[in-house]
Amino acid sequence: MDRHAHDRRRFLTLTGALAAAPLLSACGAGFGGDSGGDGGGSAAGDVTGAFDWKREKGTAIKALLNKHPYTDALIADLKSFTERTGIEVSYDVFPEDNYFDKLTVDLSSGRASYDVFMLGAYMVWQYGPPGWLEDLGPWMRNSSATGAEWDQADFFPNLLQADQWSLKAGAPLGRGGQYALPWGWETNVVAYNTEVFRKLGLRPAESFDELRELAGAIKKKAPGAGFDGMYGIAVRGSRSWATIHPGFMTMYARNGLRDFTVEGGKLTPAMNSPAAVAFTEDWADMVRRGGPPSWTSYSWYQCSADLGAKKAGMLFDADTAAYFQAVRGASPASGKIAFHPGPKGPDGSLATNMWIWSLGMNARSRRKSAGWLFLQWATGKEHLRRAALTDDHIDPVRRSISQDGAYKDKMRHLPGFLETFETVVDRTRIQFTPQAQFFDATTSWAAALQEIYGGQSARSVLDGLADDLRPKVG
Q1: At 468, is the secondary structure helix, strand, or coil?
Q2: CA 66 to chain CA centroid, nearest Å
Q3: How far apart are CA 255 and CA 259, in angstroms?
């Protein structure tokens, strides 16, 4: 479920304060670093001989986990990991409201209370440069440490690349250290109420202009067709970084727009370019004409709930936000929700932004070999297939699971879900420019979007945003 979308003002404040602390400069960038060898200076080089699941039998490790359906699936299957390895796993689970506070404090302290943990791919940009994350690349490349059945090539490559970075602001993903592994992810697409579409004779939008018209038409006509209080489209609007990353950033990227440009290693805000200003005006206009009345308070939760309650005719957000309303018996709209890739850009682009829940290892852990076995198992085919079939890992990070007949049978009752997934999976990437001020920048961007929605000049507001961000990221 798209629980990562909560407002993280406390997280931003905390990480901002920690970033200024002398402790971080003492850590030094890149514990794992960019090592290109099979072991380099990594503890992975200490593992030799034939691969053995039992090599750390009797060891105990500790995990920090966010309360989430993926976590529920992992905990339910932990016994099989211990039986296979002889490693005992203890864990703490925290709700997302304070999960990242807990993780940030622990990593920055150097205590290494936790060996392994959940993180989002965007958090690599915050946690990687201070040296808090183990580079998993040497572990992956060492056949003594990694069993052949783990099958790195089975991961969708764009998902692996999302957690790989050189630790240099503005540098593209997919190069440098592998600072986390993809575990469960979400693509951002359109879900819609098939009942109102049928009654009003509508079809899913293939362009952004069509989407705007569609949203307005539903809000105007749906109440008269028996859908009391229904509006056109649910999209996020709260003053949070999470407002920017799902539907907004997906459509922004499909229009060929960038958050920053990078020249000579220097980042320059680009959200005030003429094309970006025009797009943002159009997005705000769509929400005014077809969005919810209290849009500025909307998180993923309100968006998802409104689709399920038949209050929203469409949702442009994480596919999971619709999935949990669409499954049988989940909501008044269940059985009446279909999925669509969403509008193409002017050149036909279906570039899509993603969120990935990932698993990482503490660079200061004293039980790295055992921790790596855990990460290998948790991201392996056997556990993830079980999680997809019996739990709610609905967007597989592995190609083999996405093609598994049993998985397809499970998802087939959701109209358009599999077709939409297969259409966008290879075009889904992190569309943001990697940089440590990501959370601050996108939260400020969301505040700017609210101002434009409220009637202020898009050009003036976005110029002000760019001026504010330029010295912070440059």
Answers
A1: helix
A2: 14
A3: 12
Encoding tokens for residue 352? Answer: 């899509």
Inter-helix orientation angle 438-453/458-473, to 10°: 170
Q: Alpha-carbon distance 96 to 82, whole Å?
A: 27
Closest CA to 397 of 373, 376, 379, 371: 379
Q: Count of residues for the chain?
A: 474
* Local confidence pLDDT in tens for the 474 residues of the chain: 444 444 344 444 444 444 433 222 222 223 333 433 344 579 999 999 999 999 999 999 999 999 999 999 999 999 999 999 999 999 999 998 899 999 999 999 999 999 999 999 999 999 999 999 999 999 999 999 999 999 999 999 999 999 999 999 999 999 999 999 999 999 999 999 999 999 999 999 999 999 999 999 999 999 999 999 999 999 999 999 999 999 999 999 999 999 999 988 899 999 999 999 999 999 999 999 999 999 999 999 999 999 999 999 999 999 999 999 999 899 999 999 999 999 999 999 999 999 999 999 999 999 999 999 999 999 999 999 999 999 989 999 999 999 999 999 999 999 999 999 999 999 999 999 999 999 999 999 999 999 999 999 999 999 999 999 999 997
Pairing state between β 337-340 and 177-178: unpaired
Looking up tokens 């002000």, which residue turns up? 464
Token duo for residue 437:
């001020």
Tally Cβ neighbours within 10 Å of residue 201.
Answer: 7
Q: What is the DSSP letter of 393?
A: -
d(CA 413, CA 407): 11
pTM here is: 0.91
The structural domains of the chain, ordered by start, are: 3-186+355-429 (3.40.190.10), 187-353+432-473 (3.40.190.10)
Exposure string of 303-335, with b = 16+ CB inside 10 Å and e = fewer, is bbbbbbebbbbbbbbbbbbbbbbbbeeebebeb
Q: Are 393 and 184 in contact (CB under 8 A)?
A: yes
CA distance 230 to 326: 17
Question: Is residue 288 packed enough to be buried (19+ CB in 10 Å), middle (13-18) or exposed (0-12)?
Answer: middle
